[in-house]
Amino acid sequence: GAVVSQHPSWVICKSGTSVKIECRSLDFQATTMFWYRQFPKQSLMLMATSNEGSKATYEQGVEKDKFLINHASLTLSTLTVTSAHPEDSSFYICSARSPGHNQPQHFGDGTRLSIL
Amino acid sequence: AQRVTQPEKLLSVFKGAPVELKCNYSYSGSPELFWYVQYSRQRLQLLLRHISRESIKGFTADLNKGETSFHLKKPFAQEEDSAMYYCALRGNGNTPLVFGKGTRLSVIA
In which element (H, E) is residue B103 found? Predict the structure, then answer.
């Protein structure tokens, strides 16, 4: 089955640093990947849609300059949290959709980001 | 606008009892509806989708367009069903999933 790999699984860093999270589709090509954020005991909130070879589409209220998304290839999308602050601490989950019509989204394991 | 509502945050049932996890949606077109499950310390997994009309792990869900609902049901709950369940909607085209807030199912022995 389709597998989405996310790395790292857990990051702890100081306030002001930038953190990069990778999302890879291991056995399929994904022209579109999605980045979600999940606060404790809450649902997944879509942050942005990452399109291979073009700019990401951000949801309302999500800062483009804060959350940089790069989708350089059909199997890799990255999310960089720039100048991270404690309020950016959260669980970030990427998702990719298998190619073809009516295909489901597959999810990575998520990355827990803790900013001190 | 797309919206998914799961009215119950927590649902506790005894083993062997029937389970129904409620999901209502709001969408102007013809959506695709999904149920995802997240077991403890595991990733989100697709449980079932309305277009497949299949039963996975004993769970079924029927899309009721009149009531705009997609409730998840299982006749006899098992302890291993304890997990977080998310109802999700996808609109037309290559649009992303929109999730409900989730319902935590706890099956008591």
Answer: strand B103-108
From B18's Cα to the closest Cα of chain A, the distance in A is 25
Per-residue pLDDT reduced to its tens digit, B61-87? 989 999 999 999 999 999 999 999 999
- Looking from the CA of A96 toward its CB, the CA atoms found within 13 Å total 29
**d(CA A19, nearest CA chain B) in Å:** 21
How far is Cα B109 from Cα A17, in angstroms, rounded to an integer? 47
For A5-58, write each residue's pLDDT tens digit. 999 999 999 999 999 999 999 988 888 899 999 988 788 999 999 888 888 999
Q: Quick check: A104 and B43 CB within 8 A?
A: no
Of B32, B51, B102, the CB nearest to A43: B102
Residues listed for chain A: 116
Strand partners, A19: A81
**Residue A94 phi, psi (nearest 5):** -105, 160
